[in-house]
């Protein structure tokens, strides 16, 4: 199974990029992983929030393949412990999912079309975080999930 983190926009803070790169390198020992960034929209001042979500949604949907299992990182999603998240990854692996795609949307969230395409929603916290930080938190949690599944000592209960 390949795991993809699909994001709208790029991470710009150097310290966050370094953290993402560190966990990405660690992750590749466990599972094929890739981060894919959809470019930020240009000239958004003339667009309403809904128009921006629609345009970003079209780009997100275009990046997905038929058969992808799509999980939106969304504040209204299910919250898991790290062990429960690891179990959900294992279930996808056991079910034969070829591509598990986690999606971080733009600043206003997702269009209704993207919600309709999603198989699940996952919340990392009840708090709101900057999207750059969400990327780092997610990659670390994915790495943590892999170490849990392997019975390694990274995670402590």
Annotate the secondary structure layout:
Elements: E1 2-8, H1 14-27, E2 33-38, H2 49-63, E3 69-79, H3 82-94, E4 99-104, H4 112-117, E5 120-123, H5 131-149
Parallel strand pairs: 1-2, 1-4, 3-4, 3-5
Helix pairs in contact: 1-5, 3-5
Please characterize this protein's 3D structure.
By secondary structure, this protein is α/β, with parallel strands linked by helices. The chain has a 5-stranded parallel β-sheet. The chain starts with a strand and ends in an 8-residue tail after the last helix. It is globular. The chain has helices at residues 14-27, 49-63, 82-94, 112-117, 131-149, and strands at residues 2-8, 33-38, 69-79, 99-104, 120-123. Helix 3 (82-94) packs across helix 5. The protein has 5 helices and 5 strands, in the order βαβαβαβαβα. Helices cover 43% and strands 22% of the residues.
Q: Which key terms come to mind for this protein?
A:
single chain, 157 residues, alpha/beta, five-stranded parallel β-sheet, 5 strands, globular
Oligomerization status of the protein chains: single chain
Q: Largest sheet, if any? A: 5 strands, parallel
Number of helices: 5
Distance between the termini: 27 Å
Low-confidence runs (pLDDT<50, min 5 residues)? none
| Helix/strand order, N-terminal first | EHEHEHEHEH
Strand ordering within the main sheet:
2-1-4-3-5
Count the beta strands.
5
Which whole number gives the mean pLDDT? 95
Strand content: 15-25%
Residue share in helix: 40-55%
- Sum up the overall morphology in one term: globular
Content-based structural category: alpha/beta
Radius of gyration: 15 Å
């Amino acid at each position: 199974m390949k795991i993809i983190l699909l994001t709208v926009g790029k991470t710009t803070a150097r310290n966050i990029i370094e953290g993402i790169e560190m966990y990405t390198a660690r992750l590749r020992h466990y599972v094929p992983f890739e981060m894919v960034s959809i470019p930020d929209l240009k000239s958004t001042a003339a667009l309403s929030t809904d128009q921006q979500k629609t345009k970003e949604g079209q780009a997100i949907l275009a990046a997905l393949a038929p058969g992808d299992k799509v999980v939106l990182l969304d504040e209204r999603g299910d919250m898991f412990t790290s062990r429960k998240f690891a179990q959900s990854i294992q279930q996808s692996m056991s079910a034969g999912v070829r591509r598990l795609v986690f999606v971080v949307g733009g600043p206003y969230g997702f269009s209704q079309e993207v919600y309709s395409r999603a198989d699940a929603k996952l919340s990392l916290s009840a708090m709101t975080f900057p999207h750059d930080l969400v990327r780092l938190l997610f990659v670390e949690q994915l790495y943590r999930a892999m170490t849990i599944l392997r019975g390694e000592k990274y995670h402590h209960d």
